[in-house]
Write a structure and sequence with these properties.
By secondary structure, the protein is an alpha/beta fold. The chain has eleven helices and nine strands. The protein has a single domain, classed as Alpha-Beta Barrel (TIM Barrel), CATH 3.20.20.450. The longest helix has 18 residues, at about 70-85. It is globular and about 50 Å long.
């Protein structure tokens, strides 16, 4: 959202400054994004919660249109402050923060409170990721590109959240050149039983490799989904299977590979590799995956 009249800009600046003194209090839960090849936590996503761990929807329904600028700022401050208190930076993991592009009227001005908070709490800027949700339509692509440039100038990474579920996924990726892409969980759900969905994921893996962009599968809930995604070449995953969001703490992660070694479930790996075709993924669907990659490019 671009700045309008001088009075409008002044009100927005005031709203950003008042992010520290938002009308009601809230906190954060954290859910890890895991590198399943190494078992290390790549990042923790900060998820807004009420002070008694009420869900995000409970918090968001209280935010008015007039408060969105202050709310966006308050979310950033709360996420960084809580993560710093928990020692997140010392783990080597990054902190992923969701933000609303429409609540950023000036990339440089709206970033000052974030930068000041990170400096004050000695939180490294190169360990911050900002996730753009596709749930909000981006009307001014040039403005979003300017946000991405300004954020990268300070060492932040940019991610597209819920990729494929909202507005103009591929166009948005082409415009801002995201460092990370998070596949929408609806694409992941029951993926071993959905050959076309597997073909799309396999194509996205190849596309992201060509773009030097990291791909994250979110919403991974079952060992079967986990194995199918690994077979497609997905390395970064997030979901209840690995760890549920933990209120005001950094949760531990348990990889399904650990369960497998303990005999907790059978190894029914579904592979996207051409030489390891399973009944769920035929040669025809592998061809579909290659065609999907061509069309994506």
């Amino acid at each position: 959202m671009q700045s309008g009249s001088g009075g409008s800009t002044s009100r927005k600046c005031q709203a950003c400054r008042e992010g520290v003194d938002f009308p009601f209090q809230f906190s954060m839960a954290f859910q890890p994004i895991v590198d399943v090849q190494t078992g290390r936590i790549y990042a923790y996503e900060a998820l807004v919660r009420g002070l008694e761990n009420q869900p995000a929807g409970w918090v968001l329904e209280q935010v008015t249109a007039e408060q969105r600028y202050a709310f966006d700022q308050r979310c950033r401050v709360t996420a960084i402050a809580t993560a710093a208190k928990l020692g997140l930076a010392e783990t080597g993991a990054k902190l992923a923060i969701n933000f609303m592009p429409g609540a950023v009227y000036s990339p440089a001005a709206c970033l000052q409170l974030t930068l000041d908070t990170a400096r004050r709490l000695s939180f490294p800027s190169d360990q911050l990721i900002f996730e753009i949700t596709e749930g909000e339509e981006v009307v001014d692509r040039g403005h979003l590109a300017a946000i991405a440039r300004e954020y990268r100038r300070h060492g932040f990474e940019m991610a597209i959240d819920d990729f494929g579920a909202g507005y103009s996924g591929l166009n948005l990726l082409a415009e801002i050149g995201a460092d990370l892409v998070k596949l929408d969980m609806d694409l992941i759900r029951n993926i071993p039983e959905r050959p076309k969905a597997m073909a799309i994921v396999a194509a996205m893996v190849q596309l992201c490799e060509r773009l030097s962009t990291q791909l994250i599968a979110e919403g991974v809930e079952t060992p079967e989904e986990y194995e199918a995604l690994r077979g497609c070449g997905v390395r970064l995953m997030q979901g209840y299977l690995l760890a549920r969001p933990a209120f005001q703490t950094l949760p531990a992660v348990t990889l399904p590979d650990m369960w497998k070694r303990q005999g907790s479930y059978a190894d029914d790996t579904v592979s996207c590799e051409k030489d390891a075709i399973t009944p769920q993924l035929s040669q025809q669907n592998m061809t579909l995956g290659k065609e999907a990659l061509v069309s994506l490019c």
